[in-house]
């Protein structure tokens, strides 16, 4: 007769990953000024949580983050921390999208728009690293963009554009950004207000092309910029949709109408600012215009094709309820 011990199965114990096997990679843009010892902070917090020594990689002028991220993936790290501005974050995210490896943010730039949208304190490097190592994980959308019908696509996480906004990014002085921060963009914006609209053709989700005379066409993956201004009302990082905004000031006071509609979150019938939501979009200009992705000026071009890849990037962020203007499910 079998004993009770023989007939009962052994209790199943759920095993958790050993913290000692975990490792973070820090991809640092060395030209970004900071008074903090970033390497020391990441090392200290990694060891405090029982993780291995972090992998340190620096970006360069020739490689702003792509190759370094590929090295981090080959090393099998658990999270890749992008330490720099929105441009560094974009390059790292371009390689991490679709891999399942988490992106952490250590904002060191001027705009730091993705970090601001995700409630990551841009003035607290230690807190940002703590969120990257032990925060909650969320999946967000990534937008792929083919410029001038190139075979290879870029990605962006916050916003991209053709025309006025890209001219502002291209014309912003780096020395002024170091002195006055995001106000340097205001300076460039004022200097680029004069100008003529371009003839632009826009197609939404493969629909009929619409032709307008515009100063700018922008695509947004999330809505907020510096100062909490929501320029893409309704945009969410994980809604599977791209938000398109067209800007067409008319007359000498046209820019006042643009600002008024932005402040009104797009409400009203004034055609100076118009919005569309879609999964794909195609923009073509009859004349070359400046192009930017997440603040990186790419030079002039005439064609942009946008495509949303829903929930394709895993991001670490602080625990806590999120602004519902940013995520469709604001609970942590």
Can you describe what's shown?
- This protein has helices at residues 4-7, 38-48, 66-74, 86-96, 113-117, 125-134, 164-171, 174-180, 183-191, 254-263, and strands at 24-28, 55-58, 79-84, 102-107, 136-147, 154-156, 159-163, 198-204, 210-214, 216-220, 242-247, 273-278, 280-293, 296-317.
- It is of the alpha+beta class and 332 residues long.
- Strands 5, 6, 7, 8, 9, 10, 11, 12, 13 and 14 form a ten-stranded antiparallel sheet that branches. It has a four-stranded parallel sheet with strand order 2-1-3-4, with helices on both faces.
- A hairpin with a 5-residue loop joins strand 8 (198-204) and strand 9.
- It comes from Arthrobacter subterraneus.
Class inferred from helices and paired strands: alpha+beta
CATH architecture of the largest domain: Sandwich
Query: Rounded to an integer, what's the Rg over CA atoms?
Result: 22 Å
> Count of DSSP E strands?
14
User: What share of residues is helical?
Assistant: 25-40%
Tell the overall outline: globular
What's the SSE pattern?
Answer: HEHEHEHEHHEEEHHHEEEEHEEE
Itemize the secondary structure elements and their pairings:
Elements: H1 4-7, E1 24-28, H2 38-48, E2 55-58, H3 66-74, E3 79-84, H4 86-96, E4 102-107, H5 113-117, H6 125-134, E5 136-147, E6 154-156, E7 159-163, H7 164-171, H8 174-180, H9 183-191, E8 198-204, E9 210-214, E10 216-220, E11 242-247, H10 254-263, E12 273-278, E13 280-293, E14 296-317
Parallel strand pairs: 1-2, 1-3, 3-4
Antiparallel strand pairs: 5-6, 5-14, 7-10, 7-13, 8-9, 8-13, 10-11, 11-12, 13-14
Cofactor: Mg(2+)
GO cellular component, one term: plasma membrane
Biased composition (Polar residues): 1-15
